[in-house]
Amino acid sequence: MITQIQSDKLIVISDLHLGPLLSERWLRHRIRDVEALKPDLLAVVGDVLDHDASRAEALAPVLKRLTAPLGVFAVTGNHEFYAGFERSVRVLEAAGFRVLRDAAVEAAPGLVVAGVDDLTARAQMGEKDGFLDRALLPRPAGATIYLSHSPSGVERAADLGADLMLSGHTHNGQIWPFTYLVRLAYPRMTGAYQVGRMTLIVSRGTGTWGPPMRLFRRSEIVRITLRRA
Questions:
Q1: CATH code of 91's domain
Q2: Predicted structure pTM score
Q3: In the prediction, which pLDDT does 189 show?
Q4: Count of alpha carbons within 13 Å of 199, Cβ hemisphere only?
């Protein structure tokens, strides 16, 4: 599915929701968890911040500990929009993340990472579509990992030739029985799915939104092995 470069470990985190409820101490523990996995490439799939981006600015030096030889790539989530979009992007960039805004870059020869600003928030704001085309059509040649916070536009991403799509947003419902409500909006809610030749992986999220609790819906850090076709 994906071309192996020199190393093959892709680590995915999403939905940290750093803000009033999830503190710097919690973040430092999660960073240690990621460091222990020794990522070769790290994908940060949106909703890093919550509530107010200005309150998270002091965490940028802590987030900067998230590193990987092939780079740390990020996309915005809906909560980056709610928290103050431009300021949120500045926090992510200050942390050393390569923020992909309807764009694609070559992470290594034969390996492309593409990403879009959050589709859910843009739909709520009445923005027109075409974002996936801008991210995926003019991309460099190579196996393509596509980052989209919301698991939306999945079929279009597959049609445009993405090999692996990574999303979050759903939290797998976070607290049972909200799972059933979330599934109405996002039927591909958690885990791995095959859509044509593309694999979609939807993370349950690394943090929590609202109350810092989960019920039967554990948080996660995703580890993916990239193998030669």
A1: 3.60.21.10
A2: 0.87
A3: 72
A4: 13
